[in-house]
Q: What sequence folds into this?
């Protein structure tokens, strides 16, 4: 019996497609596309932005399936329904492949291809940067936890936040300060999702989404803590596989990165929400002085920025040599690359040319 | 080396947002259910993220976990005061549908045969989840006819103490349990419970403005302590671990609770229940309670 037979792949696949993250992403894609096109309030720009968000969601779902199948966690399954594929092809030109990480680029190109092709063939040929010798059973628990935590990304509020990053007008946060009660209402409304995103009346919803976004980041930090060799009292070359495997899985976790658009306005939009959040928190603490709350806002901001960089623009070997203010930090990162390289040598198929750390 | 038995995530048909991690061991090897209840502004996914993977990691979790099914309950999070009774009832119903017979997982897959029953139950709560679990146990005791008779008779004579039955067989493991009414609700409560803010609060912060005199709180405590005094069931003697830098709640135990003597270094109200690759204490605590060596 092979190692993968210890795992119930059929249940894992059904769970993803019918109840878990895959089902949720499908719901978001259809919800966003449908409501935007039916809303009388949405203008043409907002409709197009909705369509692109729906297309990105379809692509992300397909990428989860492809990665899961590559490591042996999922069975082969439909990558997208006929309707989703047709929809994606209509908007694929607006998702330039060069703006995407490698894993997503392969998925995007497959979904955009109008020629007859088979999902089974695509999944069989797909790899996350190198071919594997055997199913990566050791990765299943963490991958499963990633799937579960990533279900947080399909909530209505966090969807509004990401849509603001794509198409928002940061000026709305200068018009008035979001009302705390309305932010609470937006958080409560998640059980009854409304995917309509209208720039001019979304401050509180965007802020509620940002709160959910920080929770997602914290949960991801739980799954991918920064563990240094010094924490383990070990030489870098002896970092255990269970730690190095998380580094590899974090690099693979690139299917969510399309949510941060590569346009020049994204930083302004992100900053506008971040500082609206800080002002909201500070006002709350200031108005409850009897609680003697002492909050280090700069520490919170630094943590959010740090997490955002790690989980949406993760560390890759490309930036290990440059831009490191702390030489010890650069040394630690180089050591991790060596450890990852060693681990890849162990798990990749014999005939495979290693691309993962150089792509 | 024997292959580690992993857990598979399955959704629970009647409970949106809740899920289970079922051991892939055969029924005959599965002994226990572990039920997790999050706190205010928490969630089944965000409060316990790395329990999901680390229970399958032999370097982080003992083989105890291989014979355990895990259930993660999700309830309306803005519950402080307003939803306390409602959520207690929901959790009570959920737990009696888990233990001893896991009706809650449905029949959509091959896990757990018709006649399967768990032998043991561990209830795990974080913050407000701890208060809710105490209320669940009090409710179960109030509905237990044998306990009712015993409590009545013991007022007048030496009565025979009943054995714990059903969910009263549970062991309680509580991470920074709230006394109830001692937490901020509304947007301030949400903000103080966010990990990115909780970590940056000073230790003397939000726990000052509390309402420990709330009838729902004092009543739950009075009844728990009373049952604990007469019955000495494990479910009334919660094992507790507090955070080192808790800015959100007051730490005060019930009479018979047992406390971990060491605070996990650097832990905050939100992080104390979250194991990581290098902080596996929460996993051992669920298994062994204060008997774990790091608590002594």
A:
């Amino acid at each position: 019996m092979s190692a993968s037979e210890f795992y119930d792949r059929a249940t894992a696949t059904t769970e993803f497609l019918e109840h878990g993250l895959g089902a949720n992403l499908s719901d978001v894609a259809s919800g966003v596309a449908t409501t935007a096109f039916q809303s009388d309030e949405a203008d043409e720009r907002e409709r197009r932005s909705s369509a692109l968000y729906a297309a990105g969601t379809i692509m992300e779902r397909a990428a989860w399936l492809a990665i899961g199948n590559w490591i042996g966690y999922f069975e082969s399954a439909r990558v997208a329904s006929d309707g989703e594929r047709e929809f994606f092809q209509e908007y694929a030109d607006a998702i330039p492949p060069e703006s995407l990480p490698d894993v997503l680029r392969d998925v995007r190109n497959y979904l955009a291809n109008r020629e007859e092709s088979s999902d089974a063939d695509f999944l069989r040929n797909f790899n996350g940067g190198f071919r594997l010798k055997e199913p990566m059973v050791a990765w299943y628990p963490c991958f499963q936890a990633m799937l579960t935590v990533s279900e947080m990304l399909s909530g209505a509020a966090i969807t509004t936040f990401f849509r603001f990053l794509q198409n928002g007008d940061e000026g709305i946060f200068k018009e008035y300060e979001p009302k705390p009660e309305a932010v609470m209402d937006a958080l409560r409304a998640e059980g009854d999702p409304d995917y309509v995103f209208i720039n001019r009346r979304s401050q509180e919803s965007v802020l509620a989404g940002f709160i959910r976004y920080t929770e997602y980041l914290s949960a991801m930090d739980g799954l991918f803590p920064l563990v240094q060799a010094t924490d383990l009292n070990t030489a870098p070359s002896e970092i255990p596989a269970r730690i190095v495997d998380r580094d590899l899985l974090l690099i693979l976790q690139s299917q969510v990165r399309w949510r941060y658009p590569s346009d020049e306005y994204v930083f302004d939009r992100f900053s506008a929400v971040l500082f609206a959040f800080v002002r909201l928190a500070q006002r709350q603490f200031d108005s409850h002085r009897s609680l003697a709350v002492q909050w280090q806002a700069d520490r919170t901001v630094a943590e959010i920025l740090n997490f955002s960089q790690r989980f949406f623009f993760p560390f890759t070997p490309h930036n290990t040599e440059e831009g490191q203010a702390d030489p010890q930090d650069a040394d630690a990162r180089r050591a991790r690359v060596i450890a990852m390289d060693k681990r890849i040598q162990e798990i990749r198929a014999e005939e495979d040319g290693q691309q993962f750390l150089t792509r | 080396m024997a292959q580690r038995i992993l857990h598979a995530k399955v959704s629970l048909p009647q409970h949106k947002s809740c899920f289970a991690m079922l051991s892939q061991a055969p029924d005959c090897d599965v002994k226990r259910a572990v039920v997790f209840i999050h706190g205010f502004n928490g969630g089944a996914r965000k409060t316990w993220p790395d329990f999901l993977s680390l229970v399958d990691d032999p370097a982080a979790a003992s083989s105890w976990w291989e014979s355990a099914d895990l259930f993660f309950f999700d309830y309306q999070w803005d519950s402080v005061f307003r939803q306390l009774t409602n959520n207690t009832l929901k959790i009570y119903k959920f737990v009696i549908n888990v233990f001893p017979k896991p009706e809650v997982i449905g029949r959509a897959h091959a896990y757990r045969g018709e006649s399967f029953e768990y032998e043991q139950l561990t209830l795990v709560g974080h913050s407000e989840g701890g208060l809710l679990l105490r209320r669940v146990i009090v409710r179960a005791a109030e509905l237990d006819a044998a306990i009712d008779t015993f409590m009545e008779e013991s007022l007048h004579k030496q009565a025979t103490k009943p054995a714990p039955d059903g969910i009263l067989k549970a062991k309680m493991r509580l991470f920074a349990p709230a006394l109830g009414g001692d937490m901020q609700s509304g947007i301030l409560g949400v903000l103080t419970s966010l990990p990115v803010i909780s970590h940056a609060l000073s230790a003397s912060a939000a726990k000052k403005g509390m309402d420990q005199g709330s009838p729902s709180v004092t009543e739950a405590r009075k009844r728990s302590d009373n049952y604990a005094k007469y019955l000495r069931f494990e479910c009334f003697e919660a094992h507790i671990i507090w955070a080192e830098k808790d800015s959100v709640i007051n730490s005060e135990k019930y009479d018979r609770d047992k406390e971990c003597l060491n605070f996990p270094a650097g832990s905050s109200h939100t992080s104390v229940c979250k194991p990581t690759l290098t902080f596996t204490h929460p996993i051992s605590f669920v298994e062994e309670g204060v008997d774990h060596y790091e608590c002594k």
In short: The beta strands of chain B are 7-11, 19-23, 32-37, 68-73, 120-126, 171-175, 239-241, 258-259. Chain B has a mean pLDDT of 86. The first strand of chain B starts at residue 7 and ends at 11.
